[in-house]
Amino acid sequence: MSKTRKRCAYCGEENATDDEHVFPKSLYPESKRRPGLQLLTVPACKKCNMSWQDDETHFRNMLVVAGKPNAPRLELWDSTVFRSFEKKEDGQRRMKDLIGQFEEIIVDGEVRHKIYPAKDERVVRVMRKIVRGLCHHHELATAVTEKRIWVDVWRYPIQSEFYEAMTCDHREPDIVEYCYSTINSHEIETAWLITFFNVVPFIALVSIKENGFVDR
Ligand SMILES: [Zn+2]
158 alpha carbon to ligand 1 midpoint, in Å? Predict the structure, then answer.
């Protein structure tokens, strides 16, 4: 066995024994799991790897109900999401976690329900983890701490010039597309736009300093 151990992309410790999926594997429905599907992975230690599992299931459930569904989302809803609610050990909790995020709004005099993924701490935590993994994968930075990352849902139309200045990629375009740009000014290192299921766009900024967004 090799003596040199890989460093964990998240905490930087020289004890990475696992390959962690940058984008949770549970976002990919059965029909996508064909041979040749390239999921993005980075080295991670057991401790980091284990720490997101529960939040990642909740993250998937939240994204599957946010906004207008596309085909992979409908498939996920009908298969794994629905099954997760039927599980004896934690199905009820999962459903409550999700419903607890619904807010009533009135549209044309009618009660509707809406969710705000960026207000949900667990969704934000998984988003931060995704950005940390992407920073490592693209060799922009490694072992980026959670505190350096600010995340929100992007609510405005995106100008095409904005995209032109960014490097864009995807891991199955109807599951996740992402773009990034190195800024290195105004205390911001990189900016990210990450869109799930063609409909839920997140923006994330990585600060140069630790606690760079404390006052924002
Ligand atoms: Zn680690």
Answer: 34
pTM of the model: 0.92
Q: What is the average pLDDT value for the chain, to the nearest integer?
A: 90
Tell me how far the alpha carbon of residue 50 lies from the centroid of ligand 1, in angstroms. 10
Distance in Å, CA 69 to ligand 1 centroid: 34
pLDDT digits (tens, 9 = 90+) for 137-180: 999 999 999 999 999 998 877 777 777 889 999 999 999 999 99
- How many Å lie between the centroid of ligand 1 and the Cα of residue 31? 31
Expressed in angstroms and rounded, the spacing between residue 129 Cα and the centre of ligand 1 is: 11
Q: Which range among 107-116, 128-137, 185-194 shows the weakest confidence by mean pLDDT?
A: 107-116
CA-based R_g, the chain, Å: 18
Q: What is the pLDDT of residue 160?
A: 77
